[in-house]
Here is the input.
Amino acid sequence: MRRKWLAWLPLLLLPALLSACDSNKKGAASHHAGPGKPAYGDALVVGSIGEPSTLIPILASDSASFDIAGLVYNGLVRYDKYLRLEGELAEKWDVSPDGLTITFHLRHGVKWQDGREFTSHDVLYTYLVTIDPKTPTAYADAFKQVKKAEAPDPYTFRVTYAKPFAPALESWGMSILPAHLLEGKDITKSELARRPVGTGPYIFKEWIAGQKVTLESNPDYYEGRPYIGRYIYRIIPDNSTMYMELKAAGIDKMDISPIQYQRQTETPEFKSLFNKYRYPASAYTYLGYNLRNPLFSDKRVRKALTSAINKDEIVHGVLLGMGQVAHGPYKPGTWACNPNIKDLDYNPELARALLAEAGWRRKNGDGILVKDGKPFQFTVITNQGNDQRIRTAVIIQRRLKLVGIGMKILQLEWASFITNYIDKRNFEAVILGWTIGQDPDLFDIWHSSKTGPKEFNFIGYKNAEVDGLLEEGRSTFDMEKRRSRYYRLQEILAEDQPYTFLYVPDALPVVSVRFRGIEPAPAGIMYNFIKWYVPKEEQMY
Amino acid sequence: MIPLFLGITLITFVVIHIAPGEPVEMQIAMNPKVTAEARERLRKFYGLDKPLYVQYAVWVKKLAMLDFGRSFAPGNRPVVDRIKERIPVTLSLNIIALIIEFGVAIPIGILAAIRRDTLFDKGMTVFVFIGFAVPTFWLALLLMYLFGVKLGWLPISGLHSMGSEGFTRIHWFLDLLKHLILPVSVAAFGSLAGLSRYMRSTMLDVIRQDYITTARAKGLPERAVIFRHALRNALLPVITLLGLSVPGLIGGSVIFETIFAIPGMGQLFYGGVMARDYPLVMGILVIGAGLTLAGNLLADVGYAMADPRIRHGKG
Here is the structure.
């Protein structure tokens, strides 16, 4: 009996929890003192909610897989800290004057992690396997625009397009796969999915299912050996557990929530152990209207809805101020984002006037506006499990009620949300978010040809001028020309209000103070990971 | 048993396919870079373009050769591999928890029955019902905070410490045990109530029987009365419970595994259902169905062994 009770010890001590206020932190000394000297070694332990699914990037679709693959592989091009394209495996590239041919000049002397030399043959293989109809990849479309791909010599790779296609350049940021390990084999059964071999700064070491993935620094990396010796990706599916692991120094880096940022980490103790970072995330949340619905087909009504919503209030209420109001589909501060667009500010008087103009004048007994005997009542749908979206909906509901619009909120499980509502266009309004891509091309979301089943202009937005701008914007490589098209696009969207753009949240990563060399930039913090270091005397692992 | 088994697979197969959404959908929904053509390519790769009965026939045919197929998750690994890497963890954790649960609940039940209406009985009732009523995740988080963050005695989550690869075997094992203390305690605590109350009531039933009075009247010591005469009979229904918990051994609790970051079957199954990974879900259900049938059989056999009346067909 006695021994069995031993296992119960932790439970018996439960009451002690209530009185436990003292803290015995490990490594309590603050290390803010100076940058220290760069040194090799130590490990960065990162917490992740999800486990990678496959480490062959063209087959993957989850962010965990791309996090790991991004450190093991390289693309021909990548985005730099200011989100401009720069060469990675390609030293440079030329675009022919007609915009149809891109010639990549590859870096010499880059080695695969198994010692083989990287050549244009690998690039050609990656292209061919991606467009192979037998390969179950979701990313073949950009490569399919290629009319001809050739590798005239080991360090030159040339692609020719049928028509100029600006987003094409970005598509060559896809991880280049080792041809010598994959050619002639079935890529879906390749062991590279579990133990990848790339050209990148980190070499795959081990993957313990459901627990962690470990990478080791590549001493022969072409940009130089990374300082941090190991990158350990721990899989911790629960956010609260992850936060406790962070506090107990079980992990060094995680993304925290606005409430954790504002209310739980503003202590001197936390700040002596972790640095907090904050910059706009590449995503926005919006309220989209189904424009096929007569309720929303009138532009004045949509403008009234936007004027009735207090976006600042949502940023404060939902994100605790950890974000900013969105006025359009681009990330504020990026080159395509028009800083001068005239968005509608919170103005319930204007909202009422616009609604009256559109014929919504009388109110019924419930205080809801009525036109032709029908009350202004609609349902907004959003996906279950995203608290921010649900809280956003509740705040909007109250504001709309004040101008006489009744809004109901329906939360749906993701699969059902997509299949039964979005895909079938069976909704009135929706609260959803988009990730903001680095390339400003938004053809798939706003072009009128993309309103078909399962396509992404599901609100059914059609505007001939927008169509023209989108087509022009993607068919030139000239940044100034593209910018002017996208600036105009944002003006039209602000005028039409097919969505009420709500907010761009902030990304809030925290990293242990022992890591130095972190320089937040528009691209975030991970872009210069190979330059991070821990001074010798502070190394933990 | 075979027709029953096939029936189970048919129903589950249909049900999981009726659920809205498809594996392809779950992987790429709302990604503007993926066109309809790419979607079709993926559907074809997984064989989802074929009618449902064809898909079922293909699946059963493979199963007959003990092939569970390949997972629909990207990476496309054999279902067997994905289950195999998680079964040992779940199985050992559940067995330990089960031993603790039975080891603690049965004595509690017996003692509570013998000392009915004493302070011990009442105290235990309150104790086990607290375990039953407290939400697992909440208790787990509180304990993690106390022992992991505040006191730093126990690891918070996972199964191994950093650098456990380099440990000696004994050190490695102790490290693993340390990681298991919290999850196993929480799991066992939550399930004490049912079993101990059950044990208490059967024990009370037995004690009231005439043969116990007879045994006492014979002048047997109380110990012998309780342990030799009463307990053996009271344990019979518990054997059934034990048999019924066999299929539960490979099923894990999602909440619990998620909180403690334990890579077990619960998480795998939940993830499989959410991603509509049909072969994986079917694979786990088939194993579960098999174990349920086996567990029932085991309970019957165990019953027969413990109770001579059943063994001789006079039950």
Q: What stands out?
A: The radius of gyration of chain B is 25 Å.
